[in-house]
Amino acid sequence: MGNIEPEDGVSVLRHPAWQMKAVNHILLAWTATVLSTCVVSAATPEEFVLKVSLYPGGPTAIQTRVVPQRPFDSSNVFNGERITIKGLLAAKQGEHYHLRITVAEWKSEKINQSQTCELDLTPGKVEYFPGFISSIVYMKTILLIPISKERQGQ
Fold first, then answer.
1. Buried b (16+ CB within 10 A) or exposed e, 125-137
2. pTM for the complete prediction?
3. Domain check: are 138 and 73 in the same one?
4. Closest CA to 69 of 49, 102, 97
5. Rg of the chain over CA atoms, in angstroms?
C-alpha cells in the first residue's frame, strides 16, 4: 500500500491539513480520557451517618459521617462527660457492613470506661448492645444511615 498522492504531489501523510486533523483527533481522544478519569475519581464514595445513642437515664446521641474502609474518630461532651466513638466500617458484604467500634465515656481520671464491639449493620436498622457504667447496665443503639436518606429526611 502506497501513500495516496494528491494533485500537488505531496503525500497525504505529509500534507499539513491532514497532520492538523490527526493532531486534533489525538488531542480530542486524550482530553476525553483525562476527563473520564477525573469524573470516575471524583465520584463520591458511599457515605453514611453513624449514630450511637446511649440510654443511661435519657437518650444521648453522638453521630459522625463514615465511609467504608476509612477509620473514624468523633467525640462530644454531654453534661460534663466526653463521649468518643472510633472505629472502622468495613466494605459491604452482602446486605451488611461489618463495624468495629469503641465507645469511650470519660467523666474524670477515675470515672471512665470504654467498650469495643463488632457488629454487622444493615443500613436503616437499629442494632442494640449493652454497656456498663458505675455498675449500672444500660443500652446503646447504633444506626447506620445512608447519606442520601438522611438528606431526604431533612
1. eeeeeebebeeee
2. 0.64
3. yes
4. 97
5. 29
Pairing of strands 112-121, 127-133: unpaired
- pLDDT tens per residue across span 49-74: 999 988 765 667 889 999 999 999 99
The model's pLDDT over 62-114, given as tens digits with 9 standing for 90+, comes to: 899 999 999 999 999 887 888 899 999 999 999 999 999 998 888 888 888 88
Asked whether 127 and 106 are in contact (CB, 8 A), the reply is no
DSSP state of 13: G
Neighbouring C-beta atoms of residue 97, cutoff 10 Å: 21
Amino acid at 78: F
Query: Cβ–Cβ contacts within 10 Å for residue 105, how many?
Result: 19
Cα 82 from Cα 112, distance rounded (Å): 9
The helix or strand, by DSSP H or E, that contains position 48, with its residue range, turns out to be strand 48-55
Q: Rounded to 5 degrees, what angle do the CA atoms 60, 63, 69 make?
A: 145
Q: Which residue has the cell 438528606?
A: 151
Domain that holds residue 30: 12-42
Same domain for 20 and 74, yes or no, is no
Three cell numbers written together for 139: 443500652
